[in-house]
Amino acid sequence: MATQWQLMWWKFKKHYMALVGVIMLSLLVFLSVFAEFLSPEVPSGRNNSYLASGPMGIHFFDADWNFHLRPFVYSRTTERDPVTLRKLAIVDESVLWPIEFFAKGDSYKFWGLFETNVHLFQANSGFVHLFGTDSLGRDVFSRTLYATRISLSVGLVGVTFAFILGAIIGGIAGYFGGLVDNVIMRVIEFIRSIPTLPLWLALSAALPREWSSLQVYLAITVILAMVGWTHLARTVRSKLLALREEDFTVAARLSGCTDMRIILRHLLPAFMSYMIVDVTIAFPEILLAETSLSFLGLGLREPAESWGVLLFAAQNVRSISHMPWLLIPGLFIVIAVLAFNFVGDGMRDAADPYSK
Amino acid sequence: MIRFVLSRFVYMVLTMAAVSVVAFVLIQLPPGDFADSYANKRQQAGAPITTEELDNMRHQLGIDRPWYVQYGSWVSAMVLEGDMGYSWEWRRPVADVIGDRLPLTLALAFTTLFLMYLIAIPIGIYSAVRQYSITDHIFSTLGYVGLATPNFLLALILMYLGQKWFGQSVGGLFSPEYQDAPWSWGRVVNLIEHLWVPVIVLGTSGTAYLIRTVRASTLDELDKMYVMAARAGGLSPMRLLLKYPVRMALNPIVATLGWRLTYVISGAPIVGVVMSLPDTGPLFLHALLNQDMYLAGGMVLIYCAFTIIGTFISDLLLILVDPRIRMQGAS
User: Fold this and answer.
1) Is the peptide bond preceding residue B31 cis, with omega within 30 degrees of 0?
2) Residues 165-204 of B with CB under 8 A from A
3) How confident is the model at residue A29 (pLDDT cuts 50, 70, 90)?
4) What is the dihedral of CA A152, A158, A163, A169, to 10 degrees?
5) C-alpha pair distances (Å), A233 with each of A4, A348, B214
6) Which of A145, A171, A211, A214 is least surrounded by CB atoms within 10 angstroms?
């Protein structure tokens, strides 16, 4: 006989888009876990001969249509614009910079544990910037990978906080019922009637400026969770209230189970799936919120980089029209949120495998 | 019904009171106060002020009193005289500063809200009736992308495209010649010409969400027995659709109007900042960064007030739409 989780998995599998979402998420997680190794540069590294310049395409065929097994980028030479005196990078198609794999570059500490200088790819005869560089000459591709790690982890930590808060408060409301329930529900309604972004902005403006980026990071996740828990609490409460009256709960109570055993053994497994669905839905909300805060300069700040921090550089029309590639991190946000929404939809249908 | 309205009204007033406390606490939260940040500025400018001057300034501004006294005088002045305090940054009463910019925020929010419903409801119903058709798939895909794109990113992309294709800046709400002109017919037209970009930015994800909700709730209703009964009774398809399932499906849409308003108001500051609109968004952000306490507090309060009033209105609309509530004595 199939277990509850097996039934769910079968139902989830039928959701084509949800599976696509899972694959996209796994990719993002992979990118963020191995960010240091996958990125050719360290995020703070500056390339003074390639400032504020566009993405460099990777080629297999050179200008004369000769095939190269080893991919390459065209070399760049620096010239000064005669009018504005700004440095310009000019594509030189006669010289090729081959891409080397597992090449040595700047040294970094992998996961902060051991030091190494091996990167997945490098162009040691020159440089390679897949997504271009920002106005300081920092590699947008590398920075985006590092930002993926921070942004996803903010979401993860924030959702965990929200999950704990929601489970406890919703549990109390659903279990005790009556006055306690009433008060908690009014408070939740009240919190939900406050527009979130102004609230988040006001709260993060309250953080002391001199805090380290780690402190700000933790504080921001707590702030995001403080608004995010209400949805979870409502789910937990309504499920608890409904399940309390179910036959199997009554049966368990009659056969002399303790309250704790009823909650952990009988009730929790029954609404766990609903909580997971809610978490999947809460995740992109927190992700978007963090991005918006950082984008306005009230969330994370450099040297911590998240997608929002990277987009902070693209805040005005002038910089976007000069360097549209600074918007690439935004694409990652869209992909991540899309993936979570797909997975969430699939999970919502699978959460109750016994329905038609 | 009257009891229902009354109870919602009392609830609205209570929520407003609670919100005013929250707004005040929020503003008190930042370490240091306006005097500190003023002293900091002077320090950086190379003209530090003495501790005595600082204390004087605090006393003058009344920020050396305990918080509940400050709160009391803030609220009573606001309720009794419509005086929301004084903006130290702008050196003008808060009510005036906000009053200058609020109409634009409101125009933006309500235009967006109106268009959101106008577009979403027909599309949602159509997608439900023609489920799994090509149109349905197209709108679902658009909806997914719309939901996943943060407002400000959409604003940036539109601004970039506007710059590239039309060679003009799509930021702001007026062309330069109308910037400081008095209100006239031309200025209104100019405003409408500029308003569509922020409206798209603010409304896209909300519209996407609404389409999904309308589609889902219409689909739920279409399967019900009474629809089949009505169809068997020979009612014309269009009439049947509009009279029964759609009417039922609109209930949750109307009931959440307050939340939609919250949503639009929430998004407004960030869009205002990105597109440098002369509305309340940049004002609010600036006030927060400079700890211009009464201005920031006033803004939080106003943002909240609109959503609370919006919820109240959606409760009232629900009475109109849903006879079950209308017939019932109290809820």
Assistant:
1) no
2) 169, 171
3) very high
4) -170
5) 23, 17, 25
6) A214
- Which of A77, A76, A79, A59 is closest to A68 using CA atoms? A59
Q: What per-residue confidence (pLDDT) applies to A331?
A: 92
Pairwise CB contact (< 8 Å): A208 & B31: yes
The CB-based long-range contact list for B236-245 (8 Å cut-off, 24+ gap) reads B241/B125, B241/B129, B245/B218, B245/B221
Q: CB contact, 8 Å: A315 with chain B?
A: yes
Which residue type does B204 have? T
- Distances from the Cα of B154 to the Cα of B276, B279, B331, angstroms: 14, 19, 42
Complete DSSP assignment for A38-107: HSSS-TT-B-TTSTT------EEE-TT--EEEEEEEEEEEEEE-TTT--EEEEEEEEEEEE-EEEEEEEE
Residue A277's nearest CA partner among A124, A166, A120 is A166
Nearest to A334 among B22, B149, B171 (CB): B149
Q: At A273, phi and psi to the nearest 5?
A: -65, -35
Q: Residue A214: how many CB atoms within 10 A of its CB?
A: 9
Rounded Cα distance, B21 and A75, in Å:
62
User: For residue A26, is pLDDT > 90?
Assistant: yes
Residues A244-262: pLDDT tens digits? 888 888 898 899 888 888 8
- Reported residue count of chain A is 356
Q: Do B160 and A327 touch (CB under 8 A)?
A: yes
ipTM surpasses cut 0.90 = no
Q: How far is CA B180 from CA A348, B169, B197, B278, B282, in A?
A: 52, 18, 21, 11, 18
Give the per-residue pLDDT at B331. Answer: 41
Whether residue A208 and residue B19 make contact (CB cut-off 8 A), yes or no, is: no
Q: Determine contact: B148 vs chain A, CB below 8 A.
A: yes
pLDDT at A8 over 70: yes
Phi, psi of A241 (to 5 degrees): -60, -40
- Over residues A99-125, the mean pLDDT reads 83
Instruction: Write the pLDDT tens digit of every residue in B130-189.
Output: 888 898 889 988 888 888 888 888 888 888 887 777 766 656 667 767 777 777 787 777
Over residues B40-75, the pLDDT tens digits come to 777 777 777 777 777 777 777 666 677 778 788 888
User: Residue A214: its pLDDT value, please?
Assistant: 80
Do the chains contact at A311 and B152, CB–CB below 8 Å?
yes
Residue A202 to residue B304, Cβ atoms within 8 A: no
Query: For A31-42, what is the mean pLDDT?
Result: 88
Task: Choose the weakest-confidence range: A331-335, B126-130, B285-289.
Answer: B285-289
CB contact under 8 A, B299 and A201: no
Spatial CA neighbour of A89 closest among A123, A129, A62: A129
Cα dihedral value B164, A327, A131, A90, nearest 10? 30
B285 touches chain A (CB under 8 A): yes
CB contacts of B163 in chain A (<8 Å) are 317, 320-321
- A220 by Cβ neighbours in 10 Å (0-12 / 13-18 / 19+) ranks as buried
Count CB neighbours of A88 within 10 A: 15
pLDDT at residue B10 is higher than 80 = yes
Decide: residue A163, CB within 10 A, 0-12 exposed, 13-18 middle, 19+ buried: buried
Q: Tell me the mean pLDDT in the region A142-171.
A: 90
B284 touches chain A (CB under 8 A): yes
